[in-house]
Amino acid sequence: MPDSTNAYLYILIMAVVTYLIRMLPLTLIRREIKSPWIRSFLYYVPYVTLSVMTFPAILSATSSVWSGAAALAVAALLAWKRKSLFQVSLSACAAVFILELILV
Fold it and tell me: What is the pTM assigned to this prediction?
């Protein structure tokens, strides 16, 4: 178990790194970004980051990877067909419930 001095040092380092990541683009890039490729890349960064963080959690949230994968497939299909968020989430939960009953 690290002592409290090391914990404060770790927190300080994380704070500095977080601050630098947010501050450097503001100070280094002073003019408008005109490249369509870079603008498109920066536009999609938050969506990709959220997807990368949630995808493993979807597969490991249930007792079986298969039921998580089925819920993901059902949710993706219904979202692709532009169903409401309530229908998508309810259908994904139902898919997990039914597969968990079958697999256990």
Answer: 0.62
